[in-house]
Amino acid sequence: MPILSGKVAIVTGAGSGMGREETLLLAREGAKLVATDINEAAVKAVVEEVKAAGGEAAAFAHNVVSEEDWSRVVALAVETYGKIDVLVNNAGISLAVGLLDTTMEQWNKVLAINLTSNFLGMKYVIPHMQKNKSGSIINISSIAGLTGSNGAGAYTASKGGNRMLSKAAAVDFGKDNIRVNSVHPGFIETPMSSDLIKNEQMLQWFLSQTALPRVGRASEVAQAVLFLASDASSYITGVELPVDGGVTAK
Ligand SMILES: NC(=O)c1ccc[n+]([C@@H]2O[C@H](COP(=O)([O-])OP(=O)(O)OC[C@H]3O[C@@H](n4cnc5c(N)ncnc54)[C@H](O)[C@@H]3O)[C@@H](O)[C@H]2O)c1
What we know:
- It is a single chain.
- By secondary structure, the chain is α/β, with parallel strands linked by helices.
- It has one domain (8-242): Rossmann fold (3-Layer(aba) Sandwich), CATH 3.40.50.
- The chain has eight helices and nine strands.
- A seven-stranded parallel β-sheet has the order 3-2-1-4-5-6-9, sandwiched between helices. Strands 7-8 form a two-stranded parallel ribbon.
- The mean pLDDT is 98.
- The structure holds nicotinamide-adenine-dinucleotide.
- Residues 12-13, 15-19, 37-39, 42, 62-65, 90-94, 113, 140, 142, 185, 187-188, 190-193 line the site of nicotinamide-adenine-dinucleotide.
């Protein structure tokens, strides 16, 4: 039997990159997917892919910084599929701007999309998980949430913040059998990073940082998310799981 049979999962930022791969994989493994993205056309296309492969999914337009949107999406998820077992807070943006050059507007935007969104998602989803005494939440952080990185202060702060927010929630809601973990991708080829990876000098720098001599695939991050979403990780909570080809092993 597929390992997520009978489970209902919300994935944010599902229209592109890792969110798309997570949506396709979780659906292939039997979950019913609530796929959301601010880019409605993109998330609808991913849901069509899920359906074409025989899976079950619904697409919703969703800005993860909007409390109103979270309230609506979570209500629609429960109305459509009856419950929520898994939340993947994946939507995010990058900002490669040094701290002294970062404007308040940039700072607030990155913190809102990468960190406040995780708070809002948990605030609206956890009460439904508490009713079932079961749930798994996966917050997509970054290697930038584990170590300092050059010229990306706001991004690093947002990803370090969602790592610690995950641990705080793991401690608070373990009593309800709700697990909360963070996943820390390294250099993964997605639309977010493809320009950097196409730049030969950047690529060589990435490869000088990894232990495995290549960049990662979005599908490899999705496999880590699948493990944490499934009952195969039933005694794992509050951990940070790097999927980084060994960058943080150095
Ligand atoms: N690509 C990498 O190398 C890398 C490395 C570490 C961490 N990450 C993290 O992985 C996650 C996924 O990144 P990706 O590389 O797949 O990026 P991506 O740009 O391919 O996809 C991000 C998705 O999030 C959506 N999104 C952006 N703002 C949103 C908002 N306000 N509300 C709802 N949806 C929104 C976009 O529309 C897009 O579909 C992000 O949190 C990112 O920070 C990426």
